[in-house]
Amino acid sequence: METSIDTNALGEKIVRVLKTIYDPEIPVDIYELGLIYDVFVNEDYEVKILMTLTTPNCPVAETLPLEVEEKVKSLDEVKTAEVEITFDPPWSQELMSEEAKLELGML
């Protein structure tokens, strides 16, 4: 019998990893900040993450996507990980979670 993978469980693990990565200018993790638009996991354990940056000229534009890719790849179940940057839609404070807004004194 073929074993099936639980892509939802792996997705949750990936989100936990993403919550350990912080924007260096804002003391909030990139997931709560709303920088992660989507996480795709297929049956071959290949992961694609669609994310944005706070601005196109973000000082960590070169390093942050690499950090995301490397940390997600470090999960045993993940075969490959790819990060795609998009600015459509552009990031705005409305994308932040309530937790992030509270942390930054915006509530």
Automatic annotation (TrEMBL):
Q: Which Pfam families match?
A: FeS_assembly_P
Extract the signal peptide range. Answer: none
Which SUPFAM superfamilies does the record associate with it?
Answer: Fe-S cluster assembly (FSCA) domain-like
Using the record's annotation, list all stretches that form the MIP18 family-like domain: 12-83
- Record's protein name: DUF59 domain-containing protein
Q: Species name for this entry? A: Xanthomarina gelatinilytica
